[in-house]
Amino acid sequence: MAERIAGPEIERLIQLLARLPGLGPRSARRAALHLIRKREELLAPLADAMHVARERVVVCSSCGNVDTRDPCTLCADERRDATTLIVVETVGDLWALERAGAVRGRYHVLGGVLSPLDGVGPRDLNLARLVERVREGGVAEVILAVNATVDGQTTAHYIVDLLSDTPVRVTRLAHGVPVGGELDYLDEGTLAAALRQRTSL
Fold first, then answer.
1. Mean pLDDT of 117-139
2. Contact (Cβ atoms closer than 8 angstroms) between residue 121 and residue 114
């Protein structure tokens, strides 16, 4: 058993940091040391920001985004196109699409994907609210911006079935060759999808 090299407070900080995505024990130790060395510039403001986030951040009751208000800033923005609803798996996916700035519609966060192997079923996702939003009217197109995984595609097909008796147009993101991509470096699945979804010039 490894000998403890720091006090329990520092060990706890390292253990908590190690739970973050992308940080293992070694990276967590480096991050903890950096925060401690820069306690006035980084550690104190980070602690304050985390306290404020804990107290004020809520999940939007309409779309599932996280914000300090409900409805969230995006749902409250009347300049957005209310006829387009973009369905994403996670808040991280929502933020990625917003950074791209390609569409000004409204969003709906599922909170994951259907995954029988992981015990995730329809009731575990934000699907009932999605159907409710579509049935409220005003939505002309639902864009399924889910990942191109088996579970993502299963979820997309399930949503298509859920909305089959509504007049909305259901589309999904194109899958294929990325901008700037070279064919030689792409996997066979991506190339096959790109060929199936080819467009006229």
1. 95
2. yes
> Does residue 163 contact residue 107 with C-beta atoms inside 8 Å?
no
Confidence category of residue 60, pLDDT binned at 50, 70, 90? very high
pLDDT score for 1: 47
DSSP string, the chain: -PPP-S-HHHHHHHHHHHTSTT--HHHHHHHHHHHHHTIIIIIHHHHHHHHHHHHH-EE-TTT--EESSSS-HHHH-TTSEEEEEEEESSHHHHHHHHHHT---EEEEE-SS--BGGGTB-GGGTTHHHHHHHHHTS---EEEEE--SSHHHHHHHHHHHHHTTTSS-EEEE---SPPTT--GGGS-HHHHHHHHHT----
* φ, ψ dihedrals at 115, nearest 5°: -150, 90
Regarding beta strands 141-145 and 169-172, do their DSSP bridges make them parallel or antiparallel, or are they unpaired?
A: parallel
Q: Is the pLDDT of residue 75 over 90?
A: yes
CA distances from 80 to 101, 105, 115, 165 (A): 12, 5, 32, 26
Mean pLDDT of the chain: 90
Domains, in order of start, for the chain: 8-56 (1.10.8.420), 66-172 (3.40.1360.10)
